[in-house]
Each structure stands twice: as structure tokens, then as C-alpha cells.
Design brief:
By secondary structure, the protein is mainly α. It has one domain. It is rod-shaped and about 75 Å long. The chain starts with 12 loop residues before the first helix and ends with a helix. The mean pLDDT is about 75. It holds the Pfam family DUF6243.
Length: about 60
């Protein structure tokens, strides 16, 4: 297609397979960001469970 314009870029194997986007739109976040998100969710669940256990223990003690 002539006259379309735009910058051309050689695409590597990773880019052709959907990777190599650095977490931009359409790409997946980097592994570190995914790990941080999973750890945060796990810690929030553990905190919630501890609070429920503490409430149950205090209700039984009363």
C-alpha cells in the first residue's frame, strides 16, 4: 500500500507473537508487576481471614 505513511519498524519474533510490548496497551504487564499484584491479593486475603478469626475468638471469649 503506497501513501499510507507512518514509521516502519522491524518486528522481532516476540513482537510477532504478542509479546515485547513492555506492558503497553494490548500487551501483558511485566512478570514483576504480575507477581506484585498476586502477592498483594494474597496478603489482603490473609489479613481478612485473620480479622475474622480474631472476631470469632473475641466473641467466644465474651
Amino acid at each position: 500500500m503506497l501513501g499510507v505513511g507512518g514509521a516502519r519498524r522491524k518486528l522481532g519474533r516476540d513482537a510477532l507473537r504478542g509479546g515485547d510490548r513492555g506492558g503497553r496497551i494490548g500487551g501483558t504487564p511485566d512478570p514483576r508487576a504480575e507477581k506484585r499484584a498476586l502477592l498483594r491479593k494474597l496478603q489482603e486475603r490473609q489479613r481478612g481471614q485473620r480479622r475474622q478469626e480474631d472476631r470469632a475468638a473475641s466473641e467466644q471469649g465474651s
